[in-house]
């Protein structure tokens, strides 16, 4: 990838982010993670209380890149057909036709995903992994690019279903969204109570697909891949990495999807930051988001009041990132 292309990509993504921020106040880190997931063709699990602009962020981003946006409110009475579509009998023609569901969008927001029963979650599983749905034996591809952003409400637990580990693992990252600062909340109130902001279309879905292809060309040094492998390995066999006391706190560690997510995420973050090569800090920034939902704590760990973030922090303290290669730009050139 030439320096000229890298600069053009960075400028386009900066314009996209600027346009979204005309509507969305704060949430810079969350918005950055949405862009990383989009560039790396991953999916995002978001946890945060209601009213923190999660839906607004994705909807605004869809408008800016001229993509199709759909939102599904997950409820206990939802059935798979409400998600993927179904076959409808036409009495006039005497034939069946296929009515496609709301998953056929570029950006799909699955709101409160843990409120839906297992059969609905498994229907979403095929879409996330295979990017296709099967209706009456017929396969339909979802549009490209395709991003699922699912939200969870951490407050209420009544009437919720825990997400299966297999589905949680399909999410590239789990992001925690926090309350805005007092200054940000002041601006939010001003914008909401003032005249509505009309966002401009900055890019197209074709340009977004081109950015995804260029993201896969970003150079990742072998030492950085080795760092990702060590981090993930330490969640499974801590004793091999000098933190044997952590083993009793973990029931299951992260899968190889976590290693892939770290590498792909570092590539996307590097491209977002205007580089054609990934640096250690790109990966370090993403480690908590990629690992927090993939570590299953033991009863002992839970009884000590620990969270997955505490385990990740211990591992990162023991396994340092590789030194920044001084001749990295020569290697790329």
TrEMBL record:
PROSITE patterns: SIGMA54_INTERACT_4. Pfam families: AAA_3, AAA_lid_2. Residues 6-153 form the Sigma-54 factor interaction domain. InterPro entries: ATPase_AAA-3, CbbQ/NirQ/NorQ/GpvN, ChlI/MoxR_AAA_lid, P-loop_NTPase, Sigma_54_int. PANTHER family: MAGNESIUM-CHELATASE SUBUNIT CHLD (PTHR42759:SF1), MOXR FAMILY PROTEIN (PTHR42759). This is AAA family ATPase.
